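Journal club side-thread
Mid-discussion, someone asked how the predicted structure for our own chain would compare to the paper's figures. Pasting it here so we can look after the session.
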Amino acid sequence: MSNDRPAVKAPGRGLRAALWTSLLVAGTANATTSALGFSPLLSIPFGLITIASIVALVTHHRRHR
């Protein structure tokens, strides 16, 4: 048996990759700035970006499953 269906690109694949990248970069920056004792004015925005990325990834997953 062969699979004769054409390949379909998954919707939002680029968006998901961008969200994962922002999660990794912002999470690393947040951990680094917190561990090295930088000002909270620098660390908090990275934490907020990390949380926003997680929420967006969960939302994207639930809409496209």
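Post-session note: The CA atoms of residues 30 and 47 lie 6 Å apart.
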